[in-house]
TrEMBL record:
<dbReference type="InterPro" id="IPR046349">
    <property type="entry name" value="C1-like_sf"/>
</dbReference>
<protein>
    <recommendedName>
        <fullName>DC1 domain-containing protein</fullName>
    </recommendedName>
</protein>
<feature type="domain" description="DC1">
    <location>
        <begin position="9"/>
        <end position="57"/>
    </location>
</feature>
<dbReference type="InterPro" id="IPR004146">
    <property type="entry name" value="DC1"/>
</dbReference>
<feature type="domain" description="DC1">
    <location>
        <begin position="74"/>
        <end position="113"/>
    </location>
</feature>
<dbReference type="Pfam" id="PF03107">
    <property type="entry name" value="C1_2"/>
</dbReference>
<keyword id="KW-0677">Repeat</keyword>
Amino acid sequence: MKYAEISHFSHPKHNLKYDYIEKPFKCDGCNEVGIGSRYRCSSDHQSCDFDLHAHCALPSANITHPFYKKCKFQFLAKPPGNERRYCNACQKDVSGFVYHCRACGFDLHPCCAMLPMVLDDGETKLFLYRNVSSSCHRCGKKGRSWSYRSSCKKYNLHVACVREMLVENWRELYKGQSGKRIEGKSLALKNTLEHHHRSSSKGKVQKCCEIAGMAVQFVISAVLGDPTALIAGVVGSLISRG
């Protein structure tokens, strides 16, 4: 459910207004990068620069997840205890808002907890898996984190790899530098795919890379907290056009 304006415990001085932006922002709740839907401080003071992912602004007190059927995750404003904690979905540090299972000790970033089980643009379908046996097309490794896998089972991308891509580059993105480094990594992904399919015909390679580019776009959008975000102009040209 979307509200035009809300009050939030993490920012009691001012209300937060719903906003949609196609430039990256840093969420002040979970401390992760975001894009698309957000709730932003309604104050006109320039010093009050406060943003929340929609998932962080409107959390559920408790959630369950199909990957952890015995777990009950509770929303917390900060990770419990003093030990370093990481998200079981993307394997990255948890330093702010989190869904935590007290019984099992599992943690999920709010946006990771809400990752769609299926990403579908009408032509390409990607399914979320807790574990897959095939290697990731970015890092070349198996396991490690949740993954999005194409319905043809020929393409796989770790949520952790997408998160790494964002963490390494969010400062450039935040400053509006067109995501050049991310574009470079996307080209590296394209080259990996071409090498992987070097025995295929040129047409098959091109089609595979196009699907891979669309997959990257879908997954980045989802990890950023808005699977509908139009991010092509922000992260560069992710789809190979031959």
